[in-house]
Hints:
Strand content: under 5%
Shape: globular
Helix content: 55-70%
Radius of gyration: 12 Å
Largest sheet: none
Order of helices and strands: HHHHHH
Structural class: mainly alpha
Amino acid sequence: MKRRIRNDSDGEVIDKLNLPAGLKELLAGYGFTINQLLCMKSGDIARILGIDQDAARLIVYAVRESTATVDDFHDMGANRIADSLYRSIS
Protein backbone atom coordinates (compact mmCIF):
# COMPACT_ATOMS: atom_id res chain seq x y z
CA MET A 1 0.00 0.00 0.00
CA LYS A 2 1.30 3.42 -0.84
CA ARG A 3 1.75 5.39 2.35
CA ARG A 4 0.40 8.81 1.38
CA ILE A 5 -2.71 10.93 1.57
CA ARG A 6 -5.02 10.23 -1.34
CA ASN A 7 -6.12 13.81 -1.86
CA ASP A 8 -5.52 17.25 -0.40
CA SER A 9 -8.92 17.62 1.22
CA ASP A 10 -8.46 14.40 3.25
CA GLY A 11 -5.03 15.62 4.34
CA GLU A 12 -6.46 18.94 5.40
CA VAL A 13 -9.25 17.30 7.40
CA ILE A 14 -6.84 14.89 9.09
CA ASP A 15 -4.54 17.78 9.94
CA LYS A 16 -7.43 19.60 11.64
CA LEU A 17 -8.58 16.64 13.74
CA ASN A 18 -8.48 17.08 17.50
CA LEU A 19 -5.71 14.49 17.90
CA PRO A 20 -2.06 14.43 18.99
CA ALA A 21 0.35 15.19 16.14
CA GLY A 22 1.74 11.64 16.22
CA LEU A 23 -1.66 10.09 15.50
CA LYS A 24 -2.31 12.56 12.68
CA GLU A 25 1.06 11.69 11.14
CA LEU A 26 0.31 7.99 11.44
CA LEU A 27 -3.05 8.41 9.68
CA ALA A 28 -1.47 10.53 6.97
CA GLY A 29 1.34 8.02 6.50
CA TYR A 30 -1.11 5.21 5.85
CA GLY A 31 -3.08 7.29 3.37
CA PHE A 32 -6.47 6.88 4.98
CA THR A 33 -9.33 8.89 3.58
CA ILE A 34 -11.93 10.39 5.85
CA ASN A 35 -14.55 8.15 4.22
CA GLN A 36 -12.54 5.06 5.13
CA LEU A 37 -12.09 6.20 8.71
CA LEU A 38 -15.79 6.94 9.06
CA CYS A 39 -16.60 3.36 8.07
CA MET A 40 -14.08 1.66 10.32
CA LYS A 41 -14.43 0.43 13.86
CA SER A 42 -11.80 1.33 16.43
CA GLY A 43 -10.65 -2.30 16.56
CA ASP A 44 -9.93 -2.26 12.83
CA ILE A 45 -7.98 0.98 13.11
CA ALA A 46 -5.99 -0.37 16.07
CA ARG A 47 -5.13 -3.58 14.22
CA ILE A 48 -4.12 -1.85 10.98
CA LEU A 49 -2.05 0.89 12.60
CA GLY A 50 -0.61 -1.28 15.36
CA ILE A 51 -1.88 1.03 18.11
CA ASP A 52 -3.83 0.36 21.27
CA GLN A 53 -7.62 0.38 21.40
CA ASP A 54 -7.81 3.65 23.38
CA ALA A 55 -5.80 5.55 20.75
CA ALA A 56 -8.00 4.09 18.02
CA ARG A 57 -11.11 5.22 19.89
CA LEU A 58 -9.69 8.75 20.00
CA ILE A 59 -9.30 8.64 16.22
CA VAL A 60 -12.86 7.42 15.68
CA TYR A 61 -14.26 10.08 17.99
CA ALA A 62 -12.21 12.88 16.39
CA VAL A 63 -13.19 11.88 12.85
CA ARG A 64 -16.87 11.62 13.66
CA GLU A 65 -16.76 14.88 15.61
CA SER A 66 -15.18 16.67 12.65
CA THR A 67 -17.86 15.67 10.16
CA ALA A 68 -21.42 16.93 9.94
CA THR A 69 -22.94 13.51 9.32
CA VAL A 70 -21.74 9.94 9.01
CA ASP A 71 -24.97 8.38 7.76
CA ASP A 72 -24.00 8.69 4.09
CA PHE A 73 -20.88 6.59 4.64
CA HIS A 74 -22.29 3.57 6.45
CA ASP A 75 -23.35 1.93 3.20
CA MET A 76 -19.76 1.67 1.94
CA GLY A 77 -19.06 -1.75 3.46
CA ALA A 78 -16.86 -0.99 6.46
CA ASN A 79 -15.70 -4.57 6.91
CA ARG A 80 -14.70 -4.86 3.26
CA ILE A 81 -12.68 -1.64 3.46
CA ALA A 82 -10.98 -2.60 6.73
CA ASP A 83 -10.12 -6.11 5.52
CA SER A 84 -8.75 -4.77 2.25
CA LEU A 85 -6.55 -2.26 4.04
CA TYR A 86 -5.33 -4.84 6.53
CA ARG A 87 -4.42 -7.31 3.77
CA SER A 88 -2.56 -4.62 1.83
CA ILE A 89 -0.21 -3.87 4.73
CA SER A 90 0.27 -7.44 5.95
